[in-house]
Amino acid sequence: MNVYIPEELAGKVWWVRGQLRDGEGAAVGINYNNEGEALPNRGWHFMTADIPQGLPEPLTFDQPFRFLVLQTAERIDTSVVLDNFTAIYDLDTDLAGPSVIVTPAENETINSKNTTLRLQVFDPSGVDFDHIELSLNGEPISDAEIQNNGEDAFWVELNNLDDGWQRIDYRVFDKLGNASAGDTLFNVDTGDSRIFIGGEHDVIFAGGTFNLPVEVVKPETFRNFTLTLNYDTTKTALNVLAEDMEFDNVTEYPGFWQGTFSGFSENVHTLAQIELTVDGYVQNSAASLVVSGELDGKDFNYPVLKKDIGGKFVVMQDHVIANQQTRIFIADANGEAAPGVDVERVYYDVANDEVIGTEAIGTTDDYGLVRYLPRDEDDSSVELILRAYDHDGASLMSTVMSLTEQLSTAPRHVFFTPGVDSSEVQVTWFTDTAMDATYAYYGKNGNPNQHASMTESEILPFFYGPESGVVRVHHATFTGLEPNTEYSYYVANDFARSETFTFRTDRQDDEVRIHLFGDTQTTNDYNENHGSPLVSEIFDKMSAQLPNPDLIMHVGDLTEDMSDYQLVRQFLEALEGQGRFGSVMFVPTMGNHEVYNEGRYKYESIFKSPANGPFEAPNKQSVYSFDYGNARIAVVNTELFTDEEWQNMMNWLEDDMASSDQTWKVLMLHRPPYEGNKDSGNEWSKRYVPSAVDRAGIDLVVAGHDHMYSRSVTMAGDRPNPSGATYLIAGSASMKFYDADFGGIVPFADVLYDENVHTYTTLHIQGEQMEVQTRNMNGQLIDRVTLTTRESRGF
Ligand SMILES: [Fe+2]
């Protein structure tokens, strides 16, 4: 059907649905758009909904069209117009009317009283030039005045236009009878007489009152003006105050004001002030005022005045910790501290857009700060709605999460990552936020009596998921480590300590034992093939295949979403403890699932690396290199989206590899340079990585992301070449699998396995040889090959 979307609805996230009844009376929902989708721009739109097949007939309309507004606060007073209900049986039918471009354009101002109104039209079925409906300010324009070129345009000369807004309505048909309709306003401003609304406020704010003066140019030419105002009572109240003129014949009810001005004289400049008062309790929204009327017997047209509602103040905080005394910072609209401002908590029923109650928090001090102790509610994180206000304005109602502790004093999820060189490792663990003392002890001969030289910690807020809350992440660096030595360590605070773990430092010989996997993408659906248990099982299988690993290398997409604590916890728990993260060095990679929401910042805070890459936070920790055994291992971040960053990163990679005389040069990254399927989104990786790999003399490139296993023949210059590097995509360790198509790595694959079975890989470096062994979860051998370095092949 055709739906007319008015200005005040344009872009609103409203769900457009309908309901049928089938032959047995059952309700059948239909969707004209999808939940979460925005409505289109102002004007007519042909919206369609699919009717499911196989329903008992006859079908009848129960609710042909309905808006589903999931939050009442998003509702406004408005109306839509529906037209042209059409049953579509065949999608190949041309159902759309011609496309139309109108000149002068919408909102254009012209400085002449004469212009050519031109409508550019196109339709694959041909435009029906014999049936054009066109009007100017509600007056039909006769067919005789309309000229066309019989092909793609028609036009009419408009002469002696009044100054002010001109409304064009059109309806154009194609040769099959499909209509396009629309309306547009353009402005004529020659300095001649006109009435307009002044008072340009860029932002109007909650709780404020704003004057919109009704101004006139050359008032003596006018006799009679009826002003009609429609406003949205859910957000605004309206009052009209006489200024240079009186008005009468006032009709007024909520949402509507109309009054008549007569007796214009040359002394009139401002007819009246429209006083618009914005509700003091609003969330982020816009207010609109629809202006119309009649001026000396003609339609008075005006564009809808639509303003974003801002805050006079801003609550500069997105979270507090439940049961902890805190100070909340209130700023003015310029970001400066706002002293003497009252702050309250609002109990707000979103579903009914109703303020149920308020609770005073206090008044800000000279620094814009107010003390607050959020009470714990049901021991779970809750959304608080705070509002700051003074006598003539307010902040928006602002959501501040009150987050609960997700951990206790006991250190959890202890793991360690590479330090700046093999004499260092970095240990990471988590506690509740109160444990702000960070201790870690390590030592040889089973005697962890040495203080970690550097310690730090930081509170991490997690806003999403069933375990939204706060934790404290701790880091400590163990320095002065001797090679090939067993160290014991534990981490602690003033109240608790971890178990004692042991690990062996880099033997600095020519053997490296690596567990390689990725795309674990832990989720909270508890599917055994998709999360924590699977990660543990894969690790056990890798350990059976290659015991006593030195490194756990992960190609990225650790969890479904790094900003969801439950998923982070599940991943870390899967590998927690001695024999796993407690004693085997972890080598992580940033994947695309690490950058959802604030994931990039969480990754930066959690996974410490040598941080010797070219970037600052939040990409400082995710680009790095380190030496282990006889290998230089570099990790880069494929979640960068500018050429400049990629060029920087590849220059760094080349320099870094050039500075190494290690036997093996290995690169790990998330999105593969040669993709496993066409939806990989690996354009940057494809553009930059292979040439840098060739220049840097890298022997092996390991990637993930494409949820399949593949290993290329050696490649250089984008071609199979005995001098080149091996490109490996390290399978899938989650429920997702992709199939290969015909591009990317397929023509170059020595082994390609895209069955929907999980795989895992071990890499065993011994001198100039590396044994790659990949199995699926059933134990079936997928790949077993011995790779060699470029140099050992004589290149
Ligand atoms: Fe990915």
Concise overview:
The chain has 795 residues and is mainly β. The radius of gyration is 34 Å and the shape is globular. Residues 513-709 form the Calcineurin-like phosphoesterase domain.
How does the SSE layout of this entry go?
Layout: E1 2-5, E2 15-21, E3 27-31, E4 43-46, E5 60-68, E6 81-83, E7 99-103, E8 109-110, E9 115-122, E10 127-136, E11 139-140, E12 147-148, E13 153-158, E14 164-174, E15 179-188, E16 194-197, E17 204-205, E18 209-217, E19 224-231, E20 236-242, E21 247-253, E22 256-262, E23 270-278, E24 285-295, E25 298-300, E26 305-310, E27 313-315, E28 319-321, E29 326-332, E30 342-349, E31 354-363, E32 369-372, E33 382-390, E34 393-394, E35 398-403, E36 412-418, E37 425-431, E38 439-444, E39 450-451, E40 454-462, E41 469-478, E42 486-492, E43 501-504, E44 511-517, H1 532-545, E45 551-554, H2 565-574, E46 585-587, H3 599-606, E47 624-628, E48 631-635, H4 643-658, E49 664-668, H5 683-696, E50 700-703, E51 709-712, E52 715-716, E53 719-720, E54 726-730, E55 749-753, E56 759-766, E57 769-776, E58 781-788
Helix pairs in contact: 1-2, 4-5
The protein binds fe (ii) ion.
Task: Write a structural description.
InterPro entries: Calcineurin-like_PHP (IPR004843), Metallo-depent_PP-like (IPR029052), PAPs_N (IPR015914), Purple_acid_Pase-like_N (IPR008963). One of its GO terms (molecular function) is acid phosphatase activity. This protein is mainly β. It has six domains: 2-83, no CATH class; 99-188, Immunoglobulin-like (Sandwich), CATH 2.60.40.1220; 194-310, Sandwich (Immunoglobulin-like); 313-403, Immunoglobulin-like; 405-506, Immunoglobulin-like (Sandwich); 509-788, Metallo-dependent phosphatases (Purple Acid Phosphatase, chain A, domain 2). Strands 17, 19, 21, 22, 24, 25 and 26 form a seven-stranded mixed sheet that branches. Helix 4 (643-658) links the parallel strand 48 and strand 49 (664-668). The radius of gyration is 34 Å and the shape is globular. The model has no long low-confidence stretch (mean pLDDT 92). The structure holds fe (ii) ion. The site of fe (ii) ion (FE2) has 6 residues, from loops.
